[in-house]
Specification:
451 residues, alpha/beta
Length: 451
Amino acid sequence: MTTPHLSTDLTVHIERGLADLRDLVALPSVSAQGRMLPETAAAVRALLEAEGFTVQEVPGDVAPVLIAEAGEGPATLLIYNHYDVQPEDPLALWDSPPFELTERDGRLYGRGASDDKGEFASRLAAVRAVKARHGGRLPLRVRWLIEGEEEVGSPSLDRVVREQAEHLHADGCWWEFGSRTDEGRPIAYLGLKGILAVELRCRVAASDLHSSLGAVVDNPLYRLARAVASIRDEVGRVTIPGFLDGLYAPSDADLDAIRRVPGHGESTYGTYAVSRPLGTPPEYHHRLNLMPVVNVNGWGGGYQGAGSKTVLPAEGFVKLDFRLVPGQDPARVVELLRAHLNAQGLDDIQIVELETHQHPARADAGHPFVQACLAAAREAAGHDPIVNPSSGGSGPMFPFMDALGGLPCVAMGIGNSGGRAHAPNENVRRADFEYGVHFGVALLERLARGG
């Protein structure tokens, strides 16, 4: 893995950034459990104010949202991060305390070391370095939104972005995550898929019945099986009528970026010993970036213990998630699913919407801000970045693009393939943290010069 050449002044800021990260990791800001959220927001606010940012605190449903601003110049950059983290469970699988930043063999371990406190700390270090190079002045306007609810679905973010839009307009947004390959090539993501999570429920009786009555009473698990089998074909294509209508066509730049992504998923298939890949190898990145999918997440009902129990279950459920692409709306997908089930004679199956939905979002790979980010990554890493028009995952990017006039968002960060985000032994490589600071300096300087 290549590490960028670091000047002495940048090394100083990197070490200070790592000290910030150590202090932030020590705060167990677990949003799912409501732990240490106001305290962590206060710590982040203090770090920003120490660098001359004016900080506004907006109440969220779960945790405070911070909106900060500093600097002046020809360009405005919006940065999005979050200060909340996932629960540390299972604790026994950690090799060092989860809320104590610990370095081993060039990796820094701790909950939030990568997702997302490491990202924030490396970016703040870059801001400090740019200020130092400009006599204490930040030569562009930097706006920063930092929330504490991302790990629970960002329930307040859409409202806050729309209410605070006048404080968030920018030329582009540097999104909260990203990664590098083992060889040091930056990986950029220009969008996120939307997500809709639902549970299908079916009940046929007030209580379980003797299975002999299956001759005269329908089975809820059979009805759910019919429902699931009717919404996807053997190659993974969703078959709900109207589901694929109105999808936004990818740009030529998007398609060119996909053609340049190396490999055909060999690492993923090998890591997880996948025995049934979908699609042909050349389709891998196209499907992952641009294709909507439906997933069966779990199934329940009836007897599931050892041996047999001749029972006809009274009820059952199946959990699904839909990953959506631009041109699709979660609410419309629910309507289409309902109409489809009714048309199959499955009108008794209840659809229960789960958690917070996310709309899809994707920036054009040819946008000038996107190109500025890619050029800065190339400068910082000494490698051409790998560009994915969209992540296969989901997140709250849509409100930024929708409420802020089509604002392009680019995810570039310091993660790695062995970073174990959300899992025990979450980590970031020291070399990637250093790269993140170097990239931040290159991007801020490039934007300050006008691109």
